[in-house]
Amino acid sequence: MGERDEVLDETDVLIVGGGVIGCATAYYFAREGGECLVIDRTDLNTEASGRNAGSLHVQLQSMVFKEDTETVILAREETLPLFMEAGRTWKQLDAELDDDFELSVEGGLMVAETEEQVRFMEQKLERERRQGIDVEILDQAQVQALAPYLSERIIAAEHCPHEGKLNPLLATLALARGAEAAGARIRRHTELLSLERDNQGFEARTDRGVIRARRVVNAAGPRTPAIAGMMGIDLPVNYKCIQGTITEPTAAVVKHLVYHADRILTFKQVGNGNLLIGGGWPAQFDPETGYPHVLRQSIESNMWVAMLIMPEVAHLRLIRCWAGVNLKTDGRPILGEAPGFPGFFNAVPADAGMTLGPVTGRLVAEMLWGKNATFDLSRFSIERFS
Length: 386
Fold this sequence. Notes:
Layout: E1 7-16, H1 20-30, E2 36-39, E3 55-56, H2 62-67, H3 70-78, H4 80-96, E4 108-112, H5 115-130, E5 136-139, H6 140-146, E6 156-160, E7 164-165, H7 168-181, E8 185-187, E9 192-198, E10 201-206, E11 209-218, H8 224-229, E12 238-249, E13 257-260, E14 266-269, E15 274-278, E16 284-285, E17 292-293, H9 296-309, E18 318-328, E19 334-337, E20 344-348, H10 353-369
Parallel strand pairs: 1-2, 1-11, 2-8, 4-13, 11-20
Antiparallel strand pairs: 3-7, 4-6, 5-6, 9-10, 10-11, 12-15, 12-18, 13-14, 14-15, 16-17, 19-20
Helix pairs in contact: 1-7, 1-10, 4-10
């Protein structure tokens, strides 16, 4: 550390990451009178939070069962009550924030085309009901009555009334404005280069100068392992590159978040009529720039599945495709102060980071205040990896 004039800023809590979790942590901490500073190496909402599809998940996604071990599936199942709380948190924010981020909670439909897929949903439903999730299986007539835009190929669907959608390009920025209104400060284009403990807390060296902080929250999304690594912590977080597609506007008919019980698919309709189609088709990182980019094969495959399930898609033009990043843990979030590193907090969702973003931020803010947590957070501690 050099002379005093090298210090760029000082704060009680430094939040690394200007995505949905960082901005939510700042909002909940600042509105109780806490002093905090958010930094992001680029701009707010430009990485994982701004590149997702805006789905609000509750029920278990079929891809979890395809990609993960039974241990991870069980952990994800046990985290379902947190997903329910996440939905309630988004509704509260919709009422609190002076911003319209196009929140709509009309329910989710996981559709099935075969009896085998129906049996899978029935088994999944039992797991979800054990955790208090409100789900039911609808037959073909009930599906057509509720969602007549779906193909007649659909013979059943699992319905969860607590699922929905929002506009991810608006939601994080609404949280950021709410945080700033409560007194939080935000520094854009400020990249953290190193982080060390000192007698007063932490010395965070950035590309714009040094920031002194008493505590640090690691909410950096795909960069959370790198930030934790600056403290010598091995944070077991993986991520994969996925992509999404949006069509031209069409008549407002899709009220629900639609999944598939076997195929890779989600779709929903946003406020101005565009259909947003995704589900986790792979994209690719550019080896030279490190930025994700789309794959034509994934676009074609994704659209083929979407047309099977909603025939109207065949008549719509695509207007944009993009790639983003999806974080993966062992099925549970990683929340709280790292043992042996007092003052260093991690804020990592299990998956579905947009869904869990605000509730993750709220729980971490409660920890910063030393409040009794809303949930038993012991199962979410990094200590489980010891």
